[in-house]
Amino acid sequence: MSATETATADEGTGRTSTTAQTLRRLVQGDLASVRVVLGLAVIWIIFQSQEDRFLSAQNLTNLMLQITAIGLISVGIVYVLLLGEIDLSVGAVSGLSAAVMAVLSVKHGWSPYLAIAAAICVGATIGFIQGSLFSRFVVPSFVVTLAGLLAWQGALLQVLGGTGSLNINDPKITGLANTFYSDTVGWIFAAVIIAAYGGVLALGYRRRVAAGLDDSNPLPLVIRFVFLAAVVIVAVAVLNSDRGVPLAVMILLAFVVGMEFVVKRTGFGRHVFAVGGNAEAARRAGIRVNRVRVAVFTIAGSMAAIGGIMAASRLFAVNQNSGGNELLLLAIAGPVIAGTSLFGGRGSVWTALLGALVIGSISNGMDLLSLSSAVKYMVTGGVLLLAVLVDAIARQQRQTSGRV
Amino acid sequence: MSAASTPLLELEGVSKRFGPVQALDRVDFAVNAGEVVGLVGDNGAGKSTLVKAIAGIHSADRGTIRFEGSEVSISRPQDATELGIATVYQDLALCDNLDVVANLFLGRELVSSGLGVASRQLDEVRMEHETADLLSNLAVTIPSLRSEVGTLSGGQRQQVAVARSLLGEPKVVLLDEPTAALGVPQTKQVLALIRRLRERELGVVVISHNLADMFQVADRIFVLRLGRSAGEFAASETTEEQVIGAITGVGEGHEKREQQPEEEGG
Fold it and tell me: What separation, in Å, do the N-terminal and C-terminal C-alpha atoms of chain B show?
């Protein structure tokens, strides 16, 4: 054995181990989402085999419109879940905020922009108050927001007054959920999204290589890019063959991307993860834990209001059921199904979108099949239970294999 | 040697009382730059109280603390940090769900300089680069800087915690039971890391129950017993029996049972 031979052998193993590492990183990082995408595919195949209208362009467009409100509320819920907390008031807050918008617009003749801004302020303020109570008095968030759930539901009835229902006629507000872009604009959106994503990936990779941090091959990034580009192109093609890309979908996407950026790429987002992982460690590292908590609950309240506005826009009305029924539970179930941990510190904003798609697909498919409410509730409950069990099992595995 | 004439950190006549318990009684203690001092003693001897007094968790009732020759008051943890005293507690205070880089820079994340939204963005590349530099300087090997801290071994976690304390460029590092609950190879790694802290001209104070570890790594061993100084030994000129004698008080001939402090040890 010559010395050179040994050296090359060593280098060879080093190379394979880094390639294996990057592959593992790809799989680990995206394992949860891969699992959910596969689950979604199974759900779609099952419904399509029972009812061929399910995967029609018209129904898929409807599905996207149906999940907008729930997805937006879930974006805020993801932040709360990352802290390891829960916000049970988001449904009621979404209804109340939408009612405030409707009353200001219809009864007081406010401009739609001001009415929408006021509604978001209501949601933000409620979130701020609940977050402050929770962090200042160390009351479980579960209880504070449960009280909120009841109180804000009462406030909704109060705001709506005697009729209990208010039709929205302002075209700016109803346009939010009922505007569709032309085919050309749709393709421009697609091009911009794909180019932006490719640019971000390429820039990040080049910076890492320049800093000498990553000698691995860019294959995982290319796979991701191709996958996203394919999804965007197919989605736009499908939406264009019906009414076009809805404004509502673009709003949802903008919030998902923006809030994912905040949670993954900013110091604030890092602190959210730290508090959710180990609040005491975060405190000792100089993070103002209570400020982070209040900010997160404020975000959840704001996102609930935005979701409520979209729901009201789609319905052309606000009524006593706005933000009620199973909306709250589905908004929480979505991210959990898609892989955001209930125990805090793990997850991403993308799970809000993915989870809403899963839950929305199940509900939409069962509607198409005209299944009874009894069956719908039981199936949805079963899916949620399954998701929570998967989360808990993943957590146990981390705990048993994690430490020496 | 000038270091010998002016200790980096010097405590004189420090006392601390918790209610009826005299946890520290007129203790004199010093650590020089480039020196590892082992702080040993039985449970309740006052080791933790002494470290907490230096770290600003419980400030001392009486006595003076001098840092680099000038008298200072340490009443809050921030005071100690600003002076350049870093503490690594036994429970490490790491976020298991974050990776090594994120834990190292927790609470002092680097943000990229740029315009607009980009200026608020975490500079992951620079943080990872600095983490890699720091860890390789300390000869700490961790499989991937991007692996979650929760997946690391106990020894690796301890090394990450020590490395994190060095980011603030401290002059004195206090380590609370760094080798407790570690296996033999991991203990060796951590002891090697402590030696490298000494090579960096830091003053290192190590609390430990493990005398064998202390004799391997410490230059000086300082014994506390019932809140009082019970002897100081140069590690190279002492036997374990002598230190054990000082810890237990055997052979001193004046047991003071009535003064047993109740304060928790470790």
Answer: 34
